[in-house]
Amino acid sequence: MAVPTEIRQRAIALLEQLPGESLVKAVEFLETLSHEALQVSKSPKSSPDEVALLQIIQRRLSSEEQDRLAYLRQRNEMGAITDTEYKELLTYIERVEQQDAKRAEALIKLAQLRQVNLQVLINEFLPTHSNVA
Predict the structure, then answer these.
(1) Residue-level pLDDT at 65
(2) Rounded Cα–Cα distance for residues 120 and 99 (Å)
(3) What is the sign, positive or negative, of the torsion defined by CA atoms of 64, 67, 56, 124?
(4) Cα–Cα distance, 77 to 67 (Å, whole number)
(5) C-alpha distances in angstroms, 106 versus 21, 63, 64, 96, 98?
(6) What's the CA gap between 64 and 42, in Å, rounded?
(7) Tens digit of each residue's pLDDT (9 = 90 or more) over 91-124
(8) Nearest Cα to 37, choosing from 11, 7, 4, 3?
(9) Phi/psi at 76 (5° precision)
(10) How many Å apart are CA 56 and CA 19, to the nearest integer?
């Protein structure tokens, strides 16, 4: 995206008005912005395969489903769960386990695709707690 010349001129005029100490800070800030923009432009674009794997890795229960699962787990721990609720709890647990298995498979494939150690991706993508724990 091209920045209009008048904005650049305004930025230069503002820089020229700054006292020495503020000018140093302004230049440091501009260097940081420039570096960030350069990193974004250099970052490789994700392949369709990588995007599909990332979607699997990042898939989680919705917040409503997580709340319901937590409620059912609590009822089960208290011994106050009905048979219907227990079946629902087992369905959630099975679903989470299936998602975890698919997530593990996708992490392995992504590690191979990116040619990085699997532990790097595990640290990057997996939360410190699971949907079931």
Answers:
(1) 94
(2) 20
(3) positive
(4) 15
(5) 51, 23, 25, 15, 12
(6) 38
(7) 999 999 999 999 999 999 999 998 989 888 888 8
(8) 3
(9) -65, -45
(10) 52
pLDDT digit string, tens, across residues 58-75? 898 899 999 999 999 999
| Global pTM exceeds 0.70 | no
Place of tokens 């990332």: 54
Residue at token pair 């593990």: 104
Structure-token pair, residue 129: 């707690």
Three-class SS of the chain: CCCCHHHHHHHHHHHHHCCHHHHHHHHHHHHHHHHHHHHHHHCCCCCHHHHHHHHHHHCCCCHHHHHHHHHHHHHHHHCCCCHHHHHHHHHHHHHHHHHHHHHHHHHHHHHHHHCCCHHHHHHHHCCCCCCCC
Confidence of residue 29 (pLDDT cuts 50, 70, 90): confident
CB 89 within 8 A of CB 72: yes
